[in-house]
Specification:
single chain; alpha/beta; Alpha-Beta Plaits; 43% helix
Length: 365
């Protein structure tokens, strides 16, 4: 049988492969075979060893995931590429019998690839890549264990800091929030808040809150075209505000100073956002992300972040992504405090800065 690691050794190899993937910006997959009902069959492990030897590459690593599951690490392999050897192994070990269930997990995850089915899209937060049938999707416990091994989760210190600071902030600025809400109702008929679906932690969707700074029924097509052009040509992330007729009076001021984003403190209290993290992106924006860029979803989106205090509108899309991924890798309480401390100065700089003019940007037809 192909060399098989103990559970402890396999977890070590999994951690090492994750580090390699992070440094090299590539993906890898893990196949988890459920052997609970099969391992007691006569000559089972001999057959499994021959199947592994025939179907797996020399670079693939096999080990015990737990007492009922054997895992296979496939370096630089997509989810689709991992299902083929999994099927091959099952067909050789059980050619005329019911095949054991298996699950395929891919790291880092791109939840927005076109080949994902509607069912897989709806379950993207489980980090499951294409499996052969819905019955073969890993159990909740198995999924959580994989998540713990391949992702660091949200630290307790971050959860506590977010909750305490967000609650205190809402109480302190409640008079200001009331005045802003009253002003919006006076200058523009319609709702006070602008609600928009955004992509958050682990690819989960949530409703992001902002003060409404545009007239009701403003079409989003212009913004989508603008964003597409910025990403395509990797130009500085200049906003449309200076020439956007959709914005209400004083709306530009609120957007430049970040006042319109104050209601997101509610998102922080709900656990959907953090004080510090990558900005929450829109689903159609996320669909353009490369696999390595999706690593930004391994932490909560934030009110402010490493990108926001390092130039923001003067940086390109790719530079923003590198800041976001860098934050995920280096995240710490000290880094969060540094970013929060620098945020007021960054807002002032953004308000006074002469960012690139929109007229210099060519829109797609």
């Amino acid at each position: 049988m192909k060399d098989i690691y103990s559970q402890k050794e396999f977890m070590g190899r999994l951690e090492a492969e994750r580090s390699l993937a992070d440094r090299g910006n590539h993906e890898f997959s893990i196949i988890i075979f459920n052997l609970k009902k099969a391992m007691h069959h006569k000559d089972f492990f001999s057959s499994l060893g021959r199947a592994f030897k025939k179907s797996l590459r020399k670079t693939d690593e096999v080990g015990w995931f737990d007492e009922n599951h054997i895992g296979v690490i496939l370096p630089e392999t997509s989810a689709a590429g991992a299902t083929r050897p999994a099927d091959d192994v099952c067909s050789q070990v059980f050619p005329n019998k019911q095949k054991p269930a298996y699950s395929v997990f891919t790291y880092p995850v791109n939840w927005f690839k076109d080949e994902l089915t509607a069912d897989q899209q709806s379950n993207r937060e489980a980090m499951l890549s294409p499996c052969r049938t819905p019955k073969q999707v890993g159990s909740v416990g198995l999924t959580k264990k994989i998540q713990q091994l391949t992702h660091n989760g949200i630290p307790l210190w971050k959860k506590i800091m977010d909750m305490v600071c967000a609650l205190a902030g809402l109480i302190l600025i409640s008079p200001l929030l009331f005045l802003i809400a009253l002003y919006i109702k006076l200058v523009s008929p319609g709702p006070i808040f602008f609600k928009q679906e955004r992509v958050g932690y682990m690819g989960q969707r949530f409703t992001c809150l902002k003060f409404r700074t545009m007239f009701v029924d403003a079409q989003p097509t212009v913004h989508q075209q603008h964003l597409h052009e910025l990403v395509k040509k990797d130009r500085p992330l200049a906003k449309l505000d200076d020439c956007d007729l959709r914005i209400i009076p004083l709306g530009r001021f609120m957007r430049k100073t970040g006042i319109d984003e104050l209601p997101q403190l509610i998102n922080v209290i709900r656990g959907e956002m953090s004080l510090v993290g990558p900005r929450p992106c829109i689903p159609y924006e996320a669909k353009q992300f490369l696999t390595w860029q999706c690593k930004r979803f391994e932490t909560l989106p934030g009110l402010t972040g490493l990108w926001q205090v390092n130039g923001k509108n003067r940086t390109t899309f790719n530079e923003m992504m590198r800041y976001d991924v860098s934050y995920v890798k280096k995240r710490s309480a000290w880094l969060d405090f540094q970013i929060l401390f620098k945020t007021p100065a960054a807002i002032i700089a953004q308000f006074t800065d002469e960012s690139p003019k929109i007229k210099d940007i060519e829109f797609i037809s």
